[in-house]
Amino acid sequence: MAAVVPPAPATEALSPFETGPGTPAGRYLRSFWQPVKLSQDLREGQAQPIAVMGEKFTLYRGAGGKPVVTQSGCAHRQTLLSVGHVEGDSIRCMFHGWKFGSDGQCQEAPGQSPRLVERTRIRTYPACEAYGLIFVYFGEGEPPRFPDIEAFSKKHGKDMMSALVLDCGTYRRNCNYYVNVENALDLAHVPYTHRISSDPTITEVGFSPEVAFVRDITVERFDFGVRAIEVIESAPPTVSTVMLPNAMHLIVGQRDGYLEQVAWRVPIDDESHLSFQIAAMHTDEEGKIRYQEYQARKSELVAKYPSTELCAEQVLRGEKTLLDFADHPDLVNMEDHVAQMGMQFITDRGRENLAQSDKAVVQLRRMFMSRLADFVSGAPAESGW
């Protein structure tokens, strides 16, 4: 009788792109602090819905000022808590009035027994605020140490907390988050993708014309990620680092000094993401004044147009060109929107032709997938930065 050989056990397919609940990359990213909202966009007593990695949550700020993140729906009938009422540091469902504390414990359930109130709770997630952003930990167990951004900048940057201009911001991009993660190391795209925004004869603000050249890069690997550095002698180089799994640090020349930025690419779902950035402008007093004057006019300029994603979609459909948005304050992001939203390598994999200028991107993919495999095998998710 012939022996029956059982089939080999199925192996878990690893991919950086899919981040929904239970996916390898999704569990990996959930093991780190992720920004979800600008602090200024959440008022005291306000509740909002948020979507992160294919899941919905409720975010609110109680009377004590602390942000609270809970599951999206009430434990009773799953009505969205984001349409409920913030009372003190608690939130009350607008459907039947069940009330939950910031720790998730049910405090009131009108018409129900004390026993039901005692045993009912909703899930909450650790949240903190830093540098004008609200961060949340969506993983299991205790959250990791929060990254020391100030110390990282002092060691690897220009001491961004000492810059004359320090700001934070966010934007949405309708493509997979990992496209934008890799873009941080693709310095060869700048002269072409940002051809308009780096031309001072066309645009008022943007990159320095000095960065609009394709140069060779050196690639460095660290415990925390991969760095690309331009090979240039005549001026300070552009330096860009990806800190695994989805953060980046950038130093690049601007017309009034140097931009230093730390940013996170946070999936909304597998087809869109938010970027949250802390930005420092290393400039002089005159540059600071020009920056502030431009910021005062920014809202008026932005009001002329729809959102940057919609502008980019008009370009991709051939209805507009980027030159039609030359005075848009977010032209740099719009240029990246157009390039990245038009990429197809996720849905049509295997048709890329990576070249010499992509060597940092290749190193990042290898490191990301290696760390993801280690994580799936049980290794802890350590940021190292």
TrEMBL record:
Keywords: 2Fe-2S, Iron, Iron-sulfur, Metal-binding, Oxidoreductase. InterPro entries: Cholesterol_7-desaturase, Rieske_2Fe-2S, Rieske_2Fe-2S_sf. Gene3D superfamilies: 2.20.25.10, 2.20.25.680, Naphthalene 1,2-dioxygenase Alpha Subunit, Chain A, domain 1. Residues 33-136 form the Rieske domain. The keyword Transcription does not apply. Residues 1-22 are annotated as: Disordered. The keyword Iron applies. PANTHER family: BLR4922 PROTEIN, IRON-SULFUR DOMAIN CONTAINING PROTEIN. This is Rieske 2Fe-2S domain-containing protein. The lineage of its organism: Bacteria, Bacillati, Actinomycetota, Actinomycetes, Pseudonocardiales.
